[in-house]
Amino acid sequence: MQDIPSSTLLVLVPLLPLVGAILTVALGRTLGSRAHVPAIVGIAASAAVAVTLLFGMVRQVAVGNSAAQQGQQVQPVEMVTTLWEWADIPNAQAAGGTTAASFLIPVALRLDPLTATLLVIITCVGLLVAIYSIGYMHGDPGYPRFFALFSMFVFSMTMLVAASNFLLVYVFWEAVGACSYLLIGFWFTKPEAAKAAKKAFLVNRVGDFGLAVATFLLWMTYGTLNFHDTVLSDGTAVPGILGVTRLADASGYVGGAVGSAICLLLLLAACGKSAQLPLHVWLPDAMEGPTPASALIHAATMVTAGIYLIARSGPLFVACPGALTLVSIVGATTALIAALIGTVQNDLKRVLAYSTISQLGYMFASLGTGTLLGFSAAIFHLVTHAFFKALLFLGAGSVMHSMGGVIDMRRFGGLRRVMPVTAVTFLVGSLALAGVAPFAGFFSKDEILASLHSRGWPDTHGEHQEAVPAGGHAMTAGSFRLVSVTPDASRLAGGDRGSRLDALNQPATWRLLFWMSLVTAGLTAFYTFRAVFMTFTGPTRVPEQAGHHAHGAAGSAAHESPPVMTIPLVILAVASAVSGWWLFSTHGLATFLAATPSFTAPSIASTATPPVFHWDLAIQGTLAAAAGIVVAALGHLGKRSDGPQMERFLGPLETLFANRFYFDQIYAGLIVKPLEFVATLAALIDRYLIDGTVDLVARLPLALGGLVRHLQSGLVQRYALAGVIGMLLIVLALVARAMG
Amino acid sequence: MNGFSPSAHLILTITAPLVGAVVAWVLGARGVSAVRQSAAVSAVVTLGLAGWLIVRYLGDPAAASGLPYALVEMPWLTEGIFDVKLSLGLDGLSLWMFGLAALLSVTAVFVSWDAIKDRPVGFYVLLLVLETAMLGVFAARDVILFYTCFEFTLVPLFFLIGIWGHDDRRRAASKFFIYTLTGSVFTFLGLLAIVLWNASHTGTVTFDIEALTDAMKIHPLPMSAEGGWLQMIVFLALLAGFAVKVPIVPFHTWLPLAHVEAPTGGSVDLAGVLLKLGIYGFLRFSMPMLPEATALAAPWLFGLGVVGIIYGALVALVQTDLKRLIAYSSVSHMGYIVMGLFALTPVATEGANLQLINHGLSSAGLFALVGMIYERFHTRNIASLGGIASKSPWLTVLFMLFTFSSIGLPGLNGFVGEFMILAGSFQRAWAGVAPAWQTAYLVMSLLAVVGVVLGAWYMLWAVERVFFGGSREPPRSHGHGGHDAHHAHGSHGGHAPTAHDRCDLRWHELAALLPLAVFAIWIGLTPATFLRPAAQAVRESTQASSEAFAARMRLTNPAAHVAQAPTP
Q1: What is the ipTM of this complex?
Q2: Of A28, A488, B47, B133, which residue has the fewest beta carbons closer than 10 angstroms?
Q3: Distance, in angstroms, between B542 CA and closest chain A CA?
C-alpha cells in the first residue's frame, strides 16, 4: 500500500465499510447465513488501511519531532483531502448589514494523529465485534440487517472522526445516532426496544440541538466551518477554525460570552452523545439492543464522539476557562453518580452501561483541565476503555448467549466452571476497568488523576512552570484571551473578564473534582467486582432458559460460547492487559497526539509536561481500587447472588440509587407530560378555536346564500361563479379607470 | 435535438398530459387497466420530457447566467394600450418545481393503481389535467396565465377529493375549495392592482411578469401615508391567497381535512406541489415587486413561520390518525420554509427554495406510504396499527427513509434545507437586525431549532407505534381483484421480496416511491447540484426585499431615527 497516496487510503477507510453495507443490503437474502461476509471483509480491509495510515502518521510525526528538537515547538501534522463541494453559496452577504460569511461546505476528510488513532480503534474493535457477532447473531431472522447496520455504523463513525468541517461532523454525528437508533430497536417487536430506540434518538436530538446552534454561532463568529485552512477560487485564504493559521495566532479564539456560549453548546452536544449528565438517561435503556451493538456503539466508539468533539475543539474551550471547568465538573459529577447507580444494578449489562457513563465522565473530567496532559490522558483512557469495555460487554454477551438471554445476575452464579474462557477474559477486563496495575485502565486512569491533581495543586507540579515555552511570554499582552492561554491555574482563575462562569475555575474546585474522581475509582472497583463475584463465583446456578437455548440434554445445556466468540474475547483481553503499560512506558501515544493540530495551539502546547509516573497518585488510586474490591469480596465472593445483598445496608440511599436518582421520573414530570398537555391543548385550540372561527366566517355568506337558495345551484359552483363574475367586474372597472 | 427547439419542447411537455387525458378518455370503455396504463404512460412520458428539458436547461449557457429559457410568446391582445401575451418559459425559480410536478404526477398515478376502481376514467383524466395545470403555473411568465393555472389546479383537485375521497369528502372538498378560492380572489385583485399601477405610469397594460418586476423597481407602489400605503395593501392582498395556500398558521385548518379525505394520489399532488404555490408566489411576485412592504411584514411572517413550526409539531404529536399527523407535519415544515424565506438572507432563502423540493419529496412519499398502509389494513388509526415492520419490511424501510428525510437527518435532503434555513436565520438574528429586534429574532431562531427536536419526537413516536412492537393484526387487505393475480405474477417477476410479498410493496408502489427516494438521497449528498441553478434567480427575487429590510432595520433603530419607526 506504499504506492497509494494517503489521501486515497483515507477515503478507503470509510468507503470500504460503506460498500460492505450496500452489498449486504443488496445481497443479504441471497447470502443468507453468510450475510456477514461483505461487512467483515469491508471492515477488515478498512482496519488494515487504518493501521497503514497510523504507521505512516507515526513516521511523519517522528520526523516532525526530530526537527522540532532543534527548534522548540511541536509541528502540527495534518493532511486534508476534499472530495466534492457539498454546498457553495459564495459571499453570502445580505445587502447591507449581515456578516459576509460565505457558506462553502466541502466534503473534506482529514488525517492527523487524533483521527488516525481513533480510526484504528473504531475499525479494529469494530472488526473484533463483527467477528464475535457471527456467533452471537447466528440464526437471527434479522441477520443481514444487523451486519448492514453494523457496517453502516462503522462508515458513519469513521467519517465522523475524519470529517474536517463542523457541518460534516454534525452530519455524521446524527448519522451515528441513526445507526444507533436502528440497532437499539433491532428487535423492534419488543416494545421496550422500540421505546429505548426512540428515547435514545430524542435525547440525542437535544444534544444535537446544541451542536446545530454551536455550528451556526461558529459560522458567524469565524466565517467558515472548516477545521483546515482553505483557499477560495479567487485566491482568498480563509483560516479554518482549527487550521494552522488560527492555531498559531494567540488571539485567534473568541472568549467571553460568545465563546462561552459556543463551548457550552458543544458541551451540550457532547453530553448527549457521550451520555453525560443530564442527558445520560438514554444509554442504560440502549442495552435493549443486541449486545455486540452495545459493545461497539454504546461502549467503545460512538459514545466517545463527545470526547472527540471536545478534544478536537480544545483551543475553543481553552479560550473560555469557565466552560472548560464546567466540562470537568460535568464529567466528575457524572462519573460519581453513575458509579453510585452502578453499585446496586442487578442486570449485568446495565452495570456495564453505568460503568461506561462513569468512565466517559472520567474522560470529560480530564478534558476539562485544558492541559496537554488532560487531553492526551482522555484519549489514552478512550483507547484503553475501548478495549476493556468492549471486552466486558462481549463477555456479558457471551454469558447472555449461553444463559438463553437471561442477564439478571441474581439468577446465575459460579459460571467460571461453565464458561472458563469467558470468566478469565471477563476478569481481565474487570481488572483493567478497576484500575489494577498493570492492566490498561490503571495507567490511563492514573494520568487522568494526575491531570486533575495538577490543577488542584499547581504548586506541587512545578514542572509546569518550566515547561512554558519562551513563546508563551511573547504573546501580545492586553487581550483577555491571553489570560486563559497561560497554564498557571491561579492566573486562569483570575481571567474572569470573559464570562461569569470563570468563577468556577478555582483550585478548590479542582481539588474537589480530584477527590470525587478518587472516590469514583473505589466505587468502580466495587461494582465491577461485585458483578464478577455474583456472576462467576459461588455455587453454580444456571437459569432454566439456558436449556431452551441449547439443543442437548438439560445437564449439558449451558456451555462455553463457540470459538468465533471467544477468540475476539481473548484478543481484547490481551489488549486490555498490555496496551496501558505499552502506551505509557513508551510515552508513544502522548507524543504522537501532541502533533494533532488542535493540541499545537500555544495555549495547549505550552502546558506540555515531561512524562512522569506519579507514584503518589498511583498509590492513592490503587488503594481506592483495593478497597472497592475488598468490600465487594466481603459482600459477594462465593455467595449465592440471589440472597440478600450487602447493599441493603445503604438504606434509603439504595432506593435512590436503584431508582437512578429519579432522572427519568423528573424528565417525565417536568418535560414530557407538560409538553403532551400543551400539545393536547394546541390540538383543541386548532379544532375549536381556529377551525371553529373559520367555519363561523364561512357560515355568514351561507346565511346570505339562503336568500338566493332558489337558484338551485350547488354550493361550490355558486361560489366559483360569483367569484369569477366578481373578478371580471373588478377587472373591467380597473381597466376603465386605467384607460380613463 | 437540433430541430427540436426548447420552446416547442416546453409546450410539448405541458400538453403531453392533456393528450394522455384524451387517450385515457377514449380508452375508457376498455376498462380500468387500459385507462391506468395510458395514464401511466403519459405521466412517464411527461416526466421524461420534463427531465430532458431540465437537462437541456442546465447545459444552456444563457440559462447558466440566469436568463429565462424556452420562451414561448403568443400575442393575445395587442391593440391600443393593451400588450397582453400568453408567455411561457423556465428560469431558476421555476426549474425544480416544474420537474417536481412532473415527478409527483407519476407517483400520483402509480399510488392510485389499485386504490381507484370506481370511475377510473374520470379520476385519471382529472389527475392528468391537474398535471398540466401544475406544469403551466410554474412555466407561466405572465399574470393571466399564472393566475388561470393557479386557479385551475383547484378544480381537478376539488373533484378528486369530492368524488374519490373518504367518508367526509364533500365537506373537505368544499372547505378546501372555498377557503383557497376566497384567498386567491384577493391575490388576483392584488396582481391586477400591480398591472394597473404599471399601466397608469407607462400607459401600457402589460401582464408580463418580468416587465412588471422591472417596472416596480422604477416606479414602486407607494409605501407611505400619502400614497395610501398602497404597496402594503397590495402585499396583504397577495398574502391572503398565498398564506392560505402555504398554509401559514392560522390559515391552515383546511389542510388536514383535505388530506385526510383526499385519495392518496390527490394528497401526493396537494402536499408535494400545490402547497408550494404560495411560497412560489412570494418569490415570484411579493418579494421582487413589493420590497418595502415585504420588509415591513418580514419579521411578522418570520414569526408566524416559527409559530407554525412549533404549533404544527405539537398538534401533530397528539394526532391519532397517521395521515392527519403527516398533514400537521406539513404545517410544521412549511413553517420552516416561510421562516427561511422571510429571514431574507441568501443562505436562508436559497435553503427555503430547496426545501420546497425536499418537502415535496418527503411529504409526497409519506402520504403515498400512508395510502399503501390504508389499502392493506383499512385503517389509518395509529392505535389500531402496529408491528407492520414484521409484515412489510420494504414498506417500513421506505417509510423510515422518508421519515428520516422529513426530520432532517443529515445525508438526506431534508437536512440541507432545514440547516440552511436555520443557519441563515441565525445569521439574520446575529448581525442583520436592529438591536431592538435582536432578542426576538434570536429567540425565534432558537425555537425553530427546538422544532427539530419536536419533529423527531412526533415522527419517531408514530413510527414506533405503527411499525414496531408486536403485530396487532388489523383487518387484512381483501377484495382487491388484482391482488392475488399480482401475487402469482410477483413471485415469477421477482419485483417484490418474496418472503412477505402478500403484504409488502408491489411493483407499481415501488415505481411510485423509488424515484422520490433516489432524489432524497441525491439532494442530500450533493445539494450544490440543486442549489446552483436556482441560486441566481432566488437572489434576484429576494435582493430588493433584503435591501429594503436592511434599510428598515436601520430606520427602526431608535438611536438612529426615532420618528420614523412605524408600528405595524
Answers
A1: 0.83
A2: A488
A3: 10
